[in-house]
Queue: 2 jobs
Job 1
Amino acid sequence: MNYKKDSNDLLVPNVTYKIDPAEIESIEANSIAQEIGFESGDSIISINGKKPRDLIDYQILISDEILEISVLDKNLEIHNISIEKDQDANLGINFKDALFDSIKQCNNRCPFCFIDQQPSGKRKSLYVKDDDYRLSFLYGSYLTLTNLKKEDWERISSQKLSPLFISVHATDPATREKLLKNKKAGVIIDQIAWFERNSIQIHAQIVVCPDINDGKILEKSIFELAEYYKKTAKTVLSVAIVPVGLTKFRPENDGLKSITSDYAIKTIQQVEKIQASLQISHGTRFCWLSDEWYLIAGKNLPSYKSYENMPQESNGVGSIRSFLKTLSEKTKNLPKKIKEPKNISWIVGKLVYEALIPTVKKLNLIDGLKINLYGLPSIYWGQEQVVTGLLTGEDLINGLKNKDLGEAIYIPSIMLKINTDLFLDDKNIKEVENQLNTKIHVLDDSNDIIDTLIGKSNNTDIIKNA
Ligand code: SF4
């Protein structure tokens, strides 16, 4: 830490402090924190005498105008700093982790758990089964509510942690207990009623496992959840219906069946009928099938507007439709040619390959641009039809060796662990680049591919509506 202000520093040598690590990863340029002299590697101990447990506490604590912050620097020196700022001013601090205490882990044993369907011997963090309501609030990860203590419920209510994302799977108590292999799992409707009483909204998810929570049970679950979408209190805002994903690493005799094309067609018919009925009774479709259902069934994706306000896009519900819409808008006015010729490869999961062919054909009409679109299966997971986000480094190496890759390959960031260069199988970008003898470009948002390849600076002779 490098202070530019007086701070009543207290030097305590040779003492190791056992504190929860609210460790600073970076400081934003021109921020209050930079002006004061915070540095990456410093740790915040307390703000106005209170120890933040996570980003949620931190955001609440820094909303005061006057802050007394106790900071531990890399040399284990404690500094006490006073800051006066506008109430809504951020400090410009990015933390290493969102949780400064420990992550709340799951106490279920779902047979379809993707974490248990991985090979052994990978990095430890791949096997962490988080079920933490704070991550649900901050990042939209799904939680089951089976591990919440009294103080957690109190905190959700007092800090109004809303909306939360809940894995419901089935409202029928016995079915949910069976799916989660947890005797505490059967009270989901009581818990949703609690959310209603406490004005907390939720988005729900149902992972459909054939012959376990489908058919009548699925229908019952959707309609029971819809009872909590009232004119006066909209507690359950949406339901995402997702097909179970099975990998070759799952144990034998786990009682699970994979989703076939016929099964997907049947489920689409069932859910679309329910949507039509809810549209009449509730004024919303309320439940939506994830894109995978339509791709597995070989059916066209529903229209963009049928997803209403895309409440579960981050869960793969309507995300391809939304992506195609943006691509179509971005490719309305294409240049005739680009200044610097480019020959590159765009990598996606096999399941979405066909949907992107028309766009790539259109882009390849641009003089000087050649895009090789590759839709890869996942040999790693043992899935022929796979979504892009599940492709691993090994899949890229196996699927692309000896292929014409051009100058570089472009992959969407959803193939990598958030904020890292690691694929799901632990391989990093460098390893894959070395094996394929090419350069990898990561696209933050897949729509970036258009800007990256034919960005305005590269355009000549824009043709309207090409
Ligand atoms: S709740 Fe989630 S993390 Fe826990 S076992 Fe089930 S699927 Fe796995």
Job 2
Amino acid sequence: MLQLYADWHTHSCYSDGSMTPEQIVAAAARRGLDEVAITDHGPRGMFIGVRAARVYLELKEQAARLAERYSIRVLVGAEANVVSLSGDIDIPDEVAGKLDILIAGLHPQVWCKPVMQTLTWILPGWLGRYSGRVRAMMRGANTKALVAAIYKNRPAFVSHPGLMMDVDLDEIARACSSRGCAMEINAGHHYDRDGVIKAALKWGAPLVVNSDAHYPESVGELAEGLALLAKNRVPPEQVLNAREGLNYLAN
Ligand SMILES: [Zn+2]
Ligand SMILES: [Zn+2]
């Protein structure tokens, strides 16, 4: 049975989580994880982002103290928003370079840069719920933006590809495979996770399983993801946070 040693996607009260960083670390230690990452939403998330990118640097100082107190590795990362069709994210390079882990994700509650793209890209995405033609167009735009973000920013993984913003999973898996970027199986959200796994297997892209916890009881709750990996017969070496995986973050 494949075992996971880390949960690299959690949200603290510095974005929209209910937990202090200490509560995240304590919950991860209780779960018996070796490693946990605090990965708050980027600052351009509407109402849910960190108040400024420098918050991640403050969190790093807290993380070092907590790691010692709880005898667990504590990473600080960001779940960056993709904020333009050309793949820009909302974490400046000087902060991104100091993070332990960078996640890139598409979210429909985001202020784009330039702001006009919120109207021309994000808003039609909402309207796409009512029109198949608009939906297909937005799928192309979302895919283009996420692929560009993978190439431009080299994230460790993309969060929940296909959740709320539809993408072509084959295109995402191809880009991930060529950049060594993982595709996330998010245990906290329902989207076409079987489709993500199938695309990753087809194109040889790494996978990662995380909780996306916003509450203490969800930290390290990865059972749903593990079941999906088992069902699709994913080899452990393709899963970054599996004990038998490549563990490339440690290198
Ligand atoms: Zn997300
Ligand atoms: Zn998240």
